[in-house]
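[audit] Reproducing an earlier prediction to check determinism. Same input, same settings, fresh worker. If the tokens differ from the archived copy the diff job will pick it up downstream; this log only records the rerun itself.
[audit] input (98 residues):
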Amino acid sequence: MNRIAVIIVAGGSGSRMGAEVPKQFLVLDGLPILMHTIRRFAETLADARTIVVLPAAHIGYWRNLCREYAFTTPHEVCEGGALTSGASLRTASVSRMR
């Protein structure tokens, strides 16, 4: 059992940036920013459990991005609030992403 967990709260809407998509999904150097973040934590803390908190409305979009970019770095997705400030872990909705 992993004793270390990384929790990435990615509930922003991108509204302050004026972006059409939330900033965590903006592509930087060929990948969405959130993928870069997950990979860095996986490289640095290889034995840690990585949990990404997303608003319910963004979970399907994230899964599509993972397929589109063939992103296989292990992480789990947990439903949070609609905005970063309202995000909270709902442990019943954690689902393994592979």
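[audit] rerun output stored. Observation attached for the diff report: The first helix runs from residue 33 to 44.
[audit] end
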